[in-house]
Amino acid sequence: MKKIFDDDEFQAELTSLFLSEGMSALSVGEIAARMRCSRRRLYELAGTKEELFCRMIQRYFDNVLKNGNQVIDQAQGNSAEVLTEYFRVGAKAGSTLSTAFLLDLERLPEAKKIFDEYQNARAVVAEQLLEQGIREGFFVPCHVQLIVETLRAAAQRLRQPEFLTKAGMTMDQAFDEFYRVMLGGLLEKRPGEPVKGKAPRTPKAKVSQ
């Protein structure tokens, strides 16, 4: 790794290190060696390794929220398409989170709080998009608060390393699958709808006697 002088670039590289390897297995000395910097530079950012970890993940999740807002600001499609793209931003962010990172995040209360606040902020935006989609007729009428609470509960569970291991999925795969089912539903066809590819059968007219 080349020596990094630009502070923004430095923090981006440090964030990537934490996302891929977590924090627990790295000492401050090892982090400094991997970053090709002095310990002093690290301590200028935060007083402890844990505080440094929290500062970098706060930076990361703030950027994800910013990217999600950009999707909305630059949206060209309808509410359903915008919500789908908004969900994809979060799922893509999840693809960069290693198991080691997720374990450290859940173990450290300050880090867990940052993740909770990030997911709650995304849920608020999702609620607004759902309400807009219902008003515009792109989503079926539903209890929006119930859906949002389901999103929050799923977000809490799908980020758990033990669940992901049991399910044999990565975090982004789990969220992609959840969003797909939530937006599309479980039914292959809804009651009263013809099977795909088949024309509806027309009842035979009764012949008058």
Question: How does the helix and strand content classify structurally?
Answer: mainly alpha
- Indicate the CATH topology of the domain at 57-184: Tetracycline Repressor, domain 2
Shape: elongated
Q: Can you give the helix content as a percent range?
A: 55-70%
Uncertain residue ranges: 195-209
Protein name: TetR/AcrR family transcriptional regulator
Keywords: DNA-binding
Structure description:
- With about 210 residues, the protein is mainly alpha-helical.
- It has a domain at about 55-185: Tetracycline Repressor, domain 2 (Orthogonal Bundle), CATH 1.10.357.
- It has helices spanning about 5-20, 30-35, 40-45, 50-75, 80-95, 100-105, 110-135, 145-160, 160-165, 170-185.
- Helix 6 crosses helix 7 (about 110-135).
- It is elongated.
- The protein starts with 6 loop residues before the first helix and ends in a 25-residue tail after the last helix.
- Residues about 195-209 have low confidence and may be disordered.
Summarize the structure.
By secondary structure, this protein is mainly alpha-helical.
